[in-house]
Fold:
Amino acid sequence: MQKTIVATTQFIPLAGGFWAFLGENGEKWRPFPPDFPQELKKDGIKLELSAELLPDAVSFVMWGEEIDIISYRLL
Structure:
């Protein structure tokens, strides 16, 4: 399922650390694969993402929902 997400980037220092997106309403997402655009790897960047939700994804990181980024734009 595809979804439009407005969120802010944040580095989460759990399980070795990872980048994540925090939604305005408290939702949490993790990009998969975790190798996403370098320009987004900075705390506090606000953006709008078009993403595919991956509800069946399996990860050792028990934080948020995994998404596959289709496109994004900085806000």
